[in-house]
Amino acid sequence: MATDIYQLPIGGKWTLEDLYVFPRLYEQCYFMYLALQAHSEEFEDERVVNAYQVFPWQGGYSAVDFYNQLKWAVPRKRRPRVTRIRYSSPGLIELGSLSVVVALVIEKVIRNICNSAKDISGTYTVVYRDMQKRRLLRIKTETAIRKLTPAENRIIETHAESIADILDVNLDVLNERTGSSYKSLKILLSLFRRVRLLCGFQRNGKLRLK
Q1: What is the DSSP letter of 12?
Q2: Is the separation of the CB atoms in 91 and 11 below 8 Å?
């Protein structure tokens, strides 16, 4: 996949914490979307297969390990790097060695969520609360996943479709990676939370996507 230069327009007052939080969130979202590109040549490493299928998704450590595995599976020279930062009004963070196609997908998703914040946040809340009510958020083993009833699986698949649509994720590719609608949904919920935090930068004017 071709790589190029991509500029993120910024403004407002950035803190040191912002400069730590934003790149980490953006990087995690980037590697997730990159891994779901149908014809990506970046992810031939077994580490990616393990990332999608092995982690039980119980709490923060699974998520951290998952995104780290995706990152480490990409050759260092193909990982996004900061080539320039201009802190003014307007300013920019310029990234190199990344797929502009993936960057534009992230940009579109952030804009869409910011423009429809109430409806989209409501969808996430409905999905999360329904999974919580049905006690489907804390499944701990592969055996338990296999024991889900057909009705539970249909509910999970419907919820996954809703969140995948919001995030512009190809659910067929994700399900192929995970081998489980349940794991796909847990990953989608995790990705949504990260994109939503990026949207916070857009709403407060620190990120200025048009």
Answers
A1: S
A2: yes
Helix (H) or strand (E) holding 92: strand 91-98
Q: Which of 205, 19, 198 is nearest to 106 (CA)?
A: 198
Q: Which two tokens stand for residue 125?
A: 């809340």
| Among 6, 1, 3, CA closest to 95 | 6
Q: pLDDT (tens digit, 0 to 9) for every residue of the chain, 210 residues total? A: 556 899 999 999 999 999 999 999 999 999 999 988 866 666 666 778 778 877 756 555 578 888 998 998 888 888 999 999 999 878 999 999 999 999 999 999 999 999 886 788 899 999 999 999 999 988 877 888 889 999 999 999 999 999 999 999 999 999 998 888 999 999 999 999 999 999 999 999 999 998
- Side by side, the strands of the sheet bearing 91-98 are 4-10, 91-98, 81-86
